Amino acid sequence: MNKDFKISDKEYTFFIKYFNLIENKTLMHNANIRIENYINNNSVKYTDFFLNNCLKYYFDIFYLDFLSKFFFRKSIIRLKLNIVLALQEADYKNFNHMIETSNINVVFLDTLKYSIISATFPIWLLYKFLKFKLISKKKDV
Amino acid sequence: MDTKQTKIVYFLPKMLGKKINYKSIQFNRLVGAMKERYDNKNEYIHLEFLHLNSLFYQPLINNLPLPLRLSKNIFYSMYSSLGICTYFLPDSLNDKNKIILNNDKTVEINYTENNEKLLLDKKIEKRIKKYLLKMSAIPLKTIRYKSGSAIHYAGTIPMGNDDKFAVNTDGQVKFINNLIIADASIIPRLSSKPISINAATLGDYIVQKNI
Asked: Which of A33, A54, A115, B201 has a 20 to 30 Å separation from B17 between CA atoms?
């Protein structure tokens, strides 16, 4: 069960692309240790399994960030996002990269993206939920 | 005693979109001073205008009511125009800022602000905000720390030549022979700045007096 919640290489690539960071596998390893510790000390809910299974494509991460901010604040996906950002921020190279690459234009583009996401997230959520149910039913059979 | 800290977060619009040049001043690493009166004595108030560097921002970014990516991009695009002014308030010894050793061997940290200090704090805040506006910076938020939460503790055994003081002005403990104290614990009144230099000078002074 624990292994499921660890950040995979694919997920890490998505996070790096999403936050516009520099890849560092040591930090990914550190993040995974912290996630493992969290799972060992806290109970895992159904929504955690569901949201964790939602991250298949890059655009899914936009929805997950949006949903975990406003609806599933204590989910493991929120923890993953926070841990990745916090650890990368503590890295000197990444920190400088963040300062250099952030500008107002990016903020405007992001606002536009999130306004689309706020309008379409119920459809995405419904689709992902039905898919998750279908997969879990297939596994049961 | 402890120097009470207050921080004023400010926003400097003209720095928006510009890159930080760590070699220039840009309101970072500026030290200010102002004269105020506290406890019937003239006091120098120490101010520090610091840029937001070498801090950890993730908790701040996470607290913004926006998705994490948007919060991060907003914060870092405004990063060069944000700064903090920190000032320290002086402290003098009274009954309400002591560390008390109880009979049951527990330590009780008892820090209560007096009215004069609170008024001084508000007066300094008002003056700094006025100066910030003159420098075209907009004060955003004032963060007040409680006395006792800063890291400038001193004066647990204040020195003095009266009978009520356990240590004399040469650092010698009155009731134990050859015991000399030469650190910040004998400072009778705390000035408005970090105490490291004062403690070092005091140590040097005590050594010269006793050798």
From this structure: A115
